[in-house]
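Re: your question about Glycosyl hydrolase

S., sorry for the slow reply, the queue was backed up all week. Below is exactly what I fed in.
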Amino acid sequence: MPVQDTAHRPLRFGANYTPTQGWFHHWLDFDLDAVRADLDSIAALGLDHIRVFPLWPVFQPNRTLIRPRAVEQLVQLADAAAERGLDVNVDGLQGHLSSFDFLPAWTQTWHRRNIFSDPEVLSGQEEYLRTLAAALADRPNFLGMTLGNEINQFSGDPHPDPDRITHDQATAWLERMLAACEQGAPGRMHLHAEYDAAWYLDGHPFTPAQAARQGAVTAVHSWVFNGTAQRHGTDAVATEHHAAYLIELSKAWAVDPHRPVWLQEVGAPAPHIPADRAAHFTEATVVNALDCPDVWGVTWWCSHDVSRSLADFPELEYSLGLLTNDREVKPAGRAIAALVEEWRGRTPQPQVRSTALVVDAGGIEAAAHRSVCAPGGAVFEAWAKLTAQGARPALVLAELASDAAHLTARGITEVCTPDEVG
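Result:
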């Protein structure tokens, strides 16, 4: 599914689908009627797509067993979504969800193997991703595969039991898994998605260059509990523009100046965003993100609150939904619905960001000093300061800051360094 020419493609709005019955454990007791009711409530907000999360150990409990019934249920969910006008993106390797890890037994304890480098694990992952993609390849509403949800968190600190790899091994893993998705469903929008260690953490094996150059689109996940809200406050410019900052940061590493960027996860986490400010934060975050060029769409985390009957989630995870666990629309849901109505059929046409802040992250590929981009880092704080002053700064890598062709392609006419911002 081509994703080029975002300048003429209507903006997409969606939600990360969190089932009301059993959360993602619903795959163990799959109830299509409950799924249909959930999807009805999502579609009623005017949204046009969902992101869906199979649980890897449920779908592939043995390296050579991909359960046909589980795959069939995934297809049933996609078909139910189509009946409600919803497209579907499927995450494959879950992986990690809302503080819980879901890894199959054939990668753990007595069978402990590195999920990014062990040859047998890699072949199993390939077959799994290819199978899911192929099962949906003939569905018109299938957008494509995301390799997994923030699977980079397994590759290093602060994970308590990481599968450590090098930058080169991460690159090879991404290339191989994206190729498997393409084999299963040629021409669809296959991508990978990492949490912000890829952008902010020195030495992390998953890098900004990989995020901005591999896969059909760049995915960014914006969470202000990463130090942004703690440092700047709930209503601060830096907090309300964090998603926009990540979009612009991704464009600094992109080879294609008009590479589409998908704001694939963004939410209003309490207490960093109090409940009475969630609607305001939601509107401000989306409006600011749409002031960036080449945004493919916005997918809110998440569709429905987590039931309080389920134990041991971090407190903030229970209340991130656009709807309650009883499918009642929350203030953030009303804010999204209003934005969907405002933007229906329209394509953002933001003005060119002609001033760019220089990012010296210690090399294009390894980005050895990328912590300058994190909250508290020189680049982040300078970008936030410029934005608070009313500027609309882009970001450009130090290695490209004097490349006339690169600057011209992006419409950049002026560059400045964080030191010059003060």
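The mean pLDDT is 96. Residues 119-136 form the longest helix (18 residues).

Happy to talk it through on Thursday.
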